[in-house]
Amino acid sequence: GKARDEVFITTKIPCFPAMTPALALDLVRFDLSELRVSYVDLMLLHEPCKAEEDTQQAWLGLQQAFDAGLARAIGVSNFARSDIDAVVKLGSPQPAVNQCRMSVGDHDD
Questions:
Q1: Percent helix, strand and coil across the chain, each to the nearest 5
Q2: Which residue among 19, 42, 55, 80 is the one 20 to 30 A from 99 at the CA level?
Q3: How many alpha carbons fall within 13 Å on the CB side of residue 52?
Q4: Given phi > 0 = left and psi -120 to 50 = alpha, else beta, which region is 95?
Q5: pLDDT digit string (tens) for 4-13?
Q6: What are phi and psi of 30, to 5 degrees?
Q7: Whole-model pTM?
Q8: Distance between CA atoms of 56 and 59, rounded to whole angstroms?
């Protein structure tokens, strides 16, 4: 097999109502356990929560994962500008990426 540093691993955590940073961090650790790795290269918040406060709480958990070395970078997925603004105002680290769905078979032109 390949050495861990030769593979770029990205995974996502979901957002739940009444999200807390501790729950987000637990979800990160669960993913690491399932993947059998000590860190990932990119950890994403799968989508914004229905409530902005829940999104912010999830983001705070991802920041903790980053600070603990569990993710080399953190980001978001399927966020609108207003969703990104809600996490950017929480300070560093900022989202490294906003992964957006794009498909040649599903577009709006």
A1: 40, 15, 45
A2: 19
A3: 11
A4: beta
A5: 889 999 999 9
A6: -60, -45
A7: 0.90
A8: 5
- Cα distance between residue 75 and residue 94, in whole Å: 8
- Mind listing the pLDDT tens digit for each residue in 13-30? 999 899 999 999 999 999
Instruction: State residue 1's pLDDT score.
Output: 82
C-alpha–C-alpha distance, residues 21 and 78, integer Å: 20
Tokens of 85: 């603004």
Quick check: helix, strand or coil at residue 106?
strand
- Count CB atoms within 10 A of the CB of residue 33: 9
d(CA 12, CA 20): 16
Token pair of 84 as six digits = 């990104």
